Amino acid sequence: MGIIFHEETKTFHLTNGEISYIMTVLPNGHLGNLYYGKAIRDREDFSHLLELVQRPMFQYVYDDDRLFSLESVKQELPVYGTTDYRAPMVEVLQSNGSRISDFVYVSHEVNEGKPKLEALPATYTENDDEAETLIVTLKDSLTGIKARMLYTIWSDRPVIAKSVEYVNEGTEAVYLTTAYSMCLDLPDPDYQWMQLSGAWARERHIITRDLEQGVQSIGSNRGHSSHEHNPFIALKRKTTDENQGEAIGISLVYSGNFKIQAEVDTRNTARILAGINPDTFDWKLDAGEHFQTPEAVIVYSDQGLNKMSQTFHKLYQKRLARGEWRDKPRPILINNWEATYFDFTREKLIAIAQKAKECGVELFVLDDGWFGARTTDHAGLGDWVANPDRLPEGITGIAEDIEKVGLKFGLWFEPEMTNKDSDLYREHPDWILSVPGRHDSHGRFQYVLDFSRKEVVDRIYEMMAKILSTAKVSYVKWDMNRSITECYSAVLPADRQGEVFHRYILGVYDLYERLTSTFPHVLFESCASGGGRFDPGILYYAPQGWTSDDTDAIERVKIQYGTSMCYPISSMGSHVSVVPNHQTRRETPLKTRANAAYFGTFGYELDLNKLTAEEIEEVKKQVKFMKAYREVIQYGTFYRLASPFDDEECGWMVVSDDKKTAIVAWFRTLYTPNKCFTRMKLHGLDPDAIYSCNVLGGQALTVSKTPDGKLIYEKVSGDKGRYLL
Asked: Is residue 549 flagged as an active site residue?
């Protein structure tokens, strides 16, 4: 088990009993892939897996050989040219204009554990025996560029993590115009491609289609991972469903512009690339400098999509998220945004907090509008100082007021944005991303600060740290509501403007790292207008994120179902909001809204003082239920049971680690009259156990036996029923 190297055949075998990943040094010195999938027995020689064939119109590497062509070989670091006409994993622009490279094997090393990636989020180990890391060094002798390819395999997870570090050991600068994190060449294209796509308020809907000849991809060039496409795909066999069959999940631990691409050639092989989007990227690599790509995480399952997702969930819960809040049940909160928007006073906030305390809520969050001249969308962003007209005692005072009520206090920031009507912009108009001589586009009257500049990040950090140091702030909601449309930095030279997008997200990571390190007790929740940056990169700093601005329970069923393909329940911010819903205008019962919101971090986004006495009692029951079961919900094993993308019904469940407790949710999004009985098969239960079922809402059916063995059936309205499972 672990990482095996066969010297004679120059073959690497990464295996842990669940998966095998096999590579070899090819005849030309390049690194080739031989196998990836379910674990297979080790052997000295896997050369039978190297598929070589003479074909018309092939180009061949060697003058006296009409067999070895890179056009038909599975590779680990493919480049365009040198007989390979498929999309490259790396492209290096050299001073003479050439883009041809030749990365040849130099050496390798095997280390226990997993190295930290410089300035980037990544999965990690806490003990060296959790994983092993193979580092294979390849070099292009003409340019002196080294590629250090990192492969980490976990001892008890079907997971491979991949990334590349490029080091310029030559004498001249080069430009990386393409630098993907991984390539996975598959021997056949008989897969369905599954992606999580949508738009604002309908993020991460599941889209599935067959892989076909040609190129298909998802990505972003917005400066963030985006609402439109999530940096995740799954490849599944056509017969694979939630509970059986092969699936490969690929997730990029990155929050900036990305691309995941599948290229199926006319010989029916498939090349999968994932990493930084090359369409908006080039990086000048001076002599002596290095560049680290983001990490790609690859998960294999031969037990369906649920097993793939569960692997991602446990890995990202325990070995991507960090800090004091990683393993803790999350506090039940109330946020004032949909209750008040900008129209609030100190007294109104305290009144909401008092009613929330009465209901058992634990945390009050003050949203947008507390700072600078922020009474509308037009002003104030960037001026992170409390508005004295609204909060005479500042954030320190309102935080103390909320603490006296008996709740913890949380605060909203949007650190990466500014308004032109702000002191920050008036002082530093060149701090926004804008192109000299061209019009500055806005969204919601907001402009994006140039986080590629250290002095900008420093200034924002100082303002935020001052507040967090002086006030009792237990939670930060970190919003990000605008994409980057004019990407240009005032301080970078012309030949480095292609670096701005990546440098920007490195600045975001730097600010997150500094704040979370300085204030480890604070729970950070990323927001990004609900889904604009719901990705593994941010999860490294903020263990939960606002899943979508759409709080409608019916829409949330689809959004949360799709999100669960990759992300754990503990990462999904989910609230009960007012009706008619502010995004869809739909009316849904209070219990329905709670039933959807339970499967996340849970909270409320409304004015509880406007609810009826009956509704308040219902809220109290909801809070009590969530407190009793949130640890199971947030950290148990999650199973998808019925897809809302296939029918008007949806089902999922979560099972505790000891299998003593299971919570099942069933939703019907449309009503069909005179509908037949519905049966939903549960998973993950102990087959030898008898479970007692408590039903929240609807009707339960109790089943009991008379002394002579006859069954008695009785309908129970309300909360409890007993089933024989």
From this structure: yes
